[in-house]
Specification:
The complex is a heterodimer of chains A (about 400) and B (about 150). Chain A is α/β, with parallel strands linked by helices and about 400 residues long. Chain A is built from 14 helices and 17 strands. Chain B has about 150 residues and is α+β, with helices and mostly antiparallel strands. Chain B has a single domain, classed as Alpha-Beta Complex (Sufe protein. Chain: A), CATH 3.90.1010.10. Chain B is globular and about 45 Å long. The chains are: A alpha/beta (about 400), B alpha+beta (about 150). Chains A and B meet through helix 12 of A and helix 1 and helix 3 of B. The structure holds pyridoxal-5'-phosphate (PLP).
Chain lengths: ~400, ~150
């Protein structure tokens, strides 16, 4: 079954927004996705009809709200095939999830003489938290290099993993679209006695996620890239790992006892959710998960492969050598995210001209400066698609690029 | 696309395509680096200052048409000028870019010449940073040479 994209688009009010009297073509979903009515409605209905603080109060509405909040946790757990909802920790975003991993697990486990492995295609969110800790603790950070066709070069993986305590890597590059062999990397990590931390920001919204099949030990992702609201992210980790990790943020909600001289932590997952959580946003994320399940992750992935094919063909047919698409050419090995160079026009100038045509792409380093250095560019233009992207969005991009040629 | 013509004036595109004073100067000329961390643009400004005058200036780096053209135009206007005049022009330019108030200390009759063409940038607030990158780096360079 293929997606009824036209019907789906009707569920996203922002997609009918017009600017300057003309429709918009949103090609920046790798950055953040739009939200369907069911998510918007779930949040506003909750605030209108069922809002209450959770956890601390004993009145009826508080337990109703707590149930809704915990219900969303269960939905997220099922969505990624977690062993138990208590393995799902709500954070502010994936960046906070990765900082939690570094500051809690990392701080407790990494010291001088230790090593962790990252890759050359990481987002700054999966680099800087580790560098911050490494500066303090003096452990080594090793890097998995890339092959010329923008895959991870796994030829020296076993060597890199030797003696390492963790590998933390992205399941899909937010710049190149490359889908990494997550399962193979997790297996190699375990064989070397290391844990595997997966930055799932770019894959969780776009394809089926099964943490058990993946064999991962931790997985970080953001709600706002998967049709949910901003303000909430997820860190999933195996229960035994979470149980052994020290708390990250301290405060209300994460304790079971506080005395003047000490405290004890609450049970999982509350131990990692200090302070009033983003209750409304978590409800919204739960609705987003329901929505994605209704549409079907397999169908979403299939649609994006078709769109990748379509875009690849449209761009290269019209522009040939004038366009360089960074990343794998095989659509099975990549997501629907295209970083490209167009003639020798600077990406900001490309995106500026496209903006005049209501074609919204991102230009810049995409928070992946080490990767940009490998590509040999300070910036790229990036068009990225999602379940609601259609041929007309791609056609608009291709046509608008003509205007870039005219001006430059 | 009339709006874009306002941003990408012919004189700007000309400086972008054929930048003036692009390159480097050997020491004792100073080299100051500037960057726009949000977009990754990087620039180096080489300054040869003697007797209170900018005797020579070069720039290198990568960036969008606006940052490159702005730096190129800047070099043509500051070369050979006394430091006080250079600072006044920089101030005037930043006022044009609306990032500095006109506090009355800068004579408004300072001639900006070609640089006036960058006025269209003001309508695109995210690009203002591109336009002032070279100028801010120049000012930093002047501060370090005068101490
Ligand atoms: C691969 C990857 N990791 C991490 C992040 C950070 O996500 P957030 O900004 O939602 O914390 C992003 C988002 O840009 C991403 O693409």
């Amino acid at each position: 079954m293929t997606l009824d994209v036209a019907a789906l688009r009707d569920e996203f009010p922002m997609l009918s927004r017009r600017v300057g009297g003309k429709p918009i073509h949103y090609l920046d979903s790798a950055n953040s996705s739009h939200k369907p009515n069911c998510v918007i409605d779930a949040m506003s209905t909750f605030m209108r009809e069922a809002y209450s603080p959770i956890g601390r109060s004993s009145y009826a509405l508080a337990s109703e709200a707590s149930d809704a909040y915990e219900g969303a946790r269960s939905k997220v757990a099922a969505f990624i095939n977690a062993y138990s909802p208590c393995e799902v920790v709500f954070t502010k975003n994936a960046t906070e999830s990765l900082n939690l991993a570094a500051q809690s697990w990392g701080r407790a486990n990494l010291d001088k003489g230790d090593a962790i492995v990252l890759t050359h295609m990481e987002h700054h969110a999966n680099i800087v938290p580790w560098q911050m800790l490494a500066k303090e603790k003096g452990f080594e950070i090793r890097w998995v290099p890339l092959t010329p066709d923008f895959q991870l070069d796994l030829s020296s993986l076993d060597q890199l993993l030797r003696g390492a305590k963790a590998i933390s890597f992205t399941s899909m590059s937010n710049v190149l679209g490359t889908i990494n062999p997550t399962r193979e990397l997790c297996e190699a990590a375990h064989a070397a006695g290391a844990i595997a931390i997966v930055d799932g920001c770019q894959s969780v919204p776009h394809m089926t996620t099964d943490v058990r099949a993946m064999g991962a030990d931790m997985l970080a992702f953001s709600s706002h890239k998967m049709c949910g609201p901003t303000g909430v992210g997820v860190l999933w980790a195996r229960e035994a790992l979470l149980a052994a990790m020290p708390p990250f943020l301290g405060g209300g909600g994460m304790i079971s006892e506080v005395r003047l001289d000490d405290f004890t932590c609450a049970e999982l997952p509350n131990k990692f959710e200090a302070g009033t959580p983003p209750i409304v946003e978590v409800i919204g994320l739960g609705a987003a998960v329901d929505f994605l399940n209704r549409v079907g992750m397999t169908e979403i992935r299939r649609h994006e492969i078709e769109m990748t094919n379509y875009a690849y063909r449209a761009l290269t047919t019209r522009y040939g050598d004038a366009i360089t698409i960074h990343g794998p050419t095989n659509p099975e090995l990549r997501g629907a995210t295209f970083s490209f160079a167009f003639r020798d026009v600077h990406p900001h100038d490309v995106s500026q001209v496209l903006d005049q045509h209501n074609v919204y792409i991102r230009a810049g380093h995409h928070c992946a400066k080490p990767l940009m250095r490998l590509i040999g560019a300070n910036a790229t233009a990036r068009a990225s698609m999602y379940l609601y992207s259609n041929e007309s969005d791609v056609d608009a991009l291709v046509d608008a690029l003509d205007d870039v040629s005219t001006i430059f | 696309m009339s709006n874009l013509e306002d941003l990408y004036r012919e004189v700007i595109l000309d400086h972008y395509r054929s930048p003036r004073n692009k390159g480097e100067l050997p020491p004792p000329a100073t080299c100051t680096e500037g960057a726009n961390p949000l977009c990754g643009d990087e620039i180096k400004i080489f300054l040869d200052v003697a007797d209170g005058v900018v005797r020579d200036v070069r720039f290198s780096g990568h960036g969008c048409s606006i940052s490159q053209a702005s730096a190129s135009m800047m070099t043509t206007i500051v070369k050979g000028k006394p430091l006080a005049d250079v600072r006044a022009v920089a101030k005037r330019f930043k006022q044009l870019m609306t990032i500095e108030e006109n506090d009355g200390t800068t004579p408004t009759d300072i001639r900006l010449g070609d640089i006036e063409a960058l006025q269209g940038v003001v309508k695109y607030p995210v690009r203002i940073k591109c336009a002032v990158l070279g100028w801010n780096t120049l000012l930093e360079g002047l501060d370090s040479t005068s101490t």
